[in-house]
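QA checklist item 7 of 12: single-chain prediction sanity check.
[x] sequence parsed
[x] length recorded as 501
[x] structure emitted
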Amino acid sequence: MLFRPDRRDFSLIGFYTGKVLFGVGLAMLAPALMALALGERNELWAFLLGAALAITAGRTTELLLFTREPLSTSHGLAAVALSWTLAPVFAGLPLLLSGHYASYLDAYFESMSGFATIGLTLANDLDHMARSVNLWRHLMQFIGGQGIVVVVLTIFASAGGRIGYLYTGEGREEKILPNVIRTSRFIWRVAIVYAVIGTALLWLALVGAGLPAPTALYHGANLFMAAFDTGGFATQSSSVGFYRSVVVEIVLLPIMTAGAFSFALHYQLWLGRRSELVRNIETRTIAASTLVMFTIMAAGLGRTETFTTFYTMMRQGFFQLISAHTTTGLATVPGRIYVTDWGVLAPAVLVTAMALGGMAGSTAGGIKAMRIGLILKGVIRDVRKVLLPEDAIVVETFHSSTRKTLSDTQVRAAATILLLWLVLYFTGGLIGLFYGYELQLSLFESVAAASSGGLSVGLVRPELEWPLKVVYIAQMMIGRLEFIAVFALFGYLLAIIRGRV
């Protein structure tokens, strides 16, 4: 039986959602300052309006629904899903007022793509977008990569353990440090330290590529946010291909890879435990899958004879593969080429790489290497059971920070989530087929949206049918939050409609 939520339930969910909206409003002041400095007057007023509305909505909600009640699991999950639904409502307003988006739906799509670190874009004339607006697109990725709610955990630390369920609602399970407040601060510390180092390296590489120093710094900061947060937004419409620099691509590869590593692994590395890189089940899974997929991609590209030299084929193919596997979405070639010039095998590899994704607890999306590794371990264990005598006790272990014993519960949970991901991928593909698009295009774009892969074959564009835009928005949020938080929000909505007191 469903019980209709009462005022206490609404107060808990609304109160913490208001905190998130307040944090988003404060974040909009950063591009507003850039607009002021650069004399972008229209954009300045747009950001001030968006910030004022978000801050007002957040503070009003907090005041009206103030509560000291502790969050339950369902309240926390529902608050996270509602926060991710409402944050783009306000974040998309400056985008709409910039004049680069055909409708509010397109601006909302862009904001969701930013926060969920997808990288799919509906922007018109990106090459002439105001710098403050372009910065906001990338800042949304930076905020969303760490987690919108992590902002709340960091800023509003006085809430303490009462908001721990907000942290897990964003698809994070690990508490790297004893509590979520310290864990959230560590996540930001990692992001900021890497931002300084990564931006500096990219700045030097871009200056070497011929950009003026101030422009190179701006592009470098945006590129870092797109790469480390596996977001994929680009400052130029031709993405990384705009720079025509192998040095820039080389610098981006480790940044994208670092973004796909879990923050738990980063913590181990910060402690000097470098052996974790070779022992961890996820790094082993990603290394193996990368090797297998790159071999298949090289064979596919070799058959098409698209590239005139072996070096060019390796350079372009490897960058696209890493971008797909880390679910970043940065590209060095136009996306349409994947289906017109790359044959069948190479695009299939890109789809598979995006679908698999990076590590659990990272900024990357997709099924995650942990689940793939656990399922493979489960298969190996079952094969050993068949081959060994019936009375043999088979124990399979895996390493993730410490040596752990594989359980049936872990394998079943991983298999269940894998099934949900496949349903999500194929649902978007089938809806694309309904609107008359080829299976290859529909499935590619569906996986890119749901996994936060971000690479595109050109199907996502301003002229795309609005129902498909809505489908991709839903896939972005569901994939980013990994189902459970969205299910909790739908549960509350269903209880409001059909529940009993």
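[x] summary fact logged: Residues 192 and 275 are 24 Å apart (CA to CA).
[ ] second reviewer sign-off
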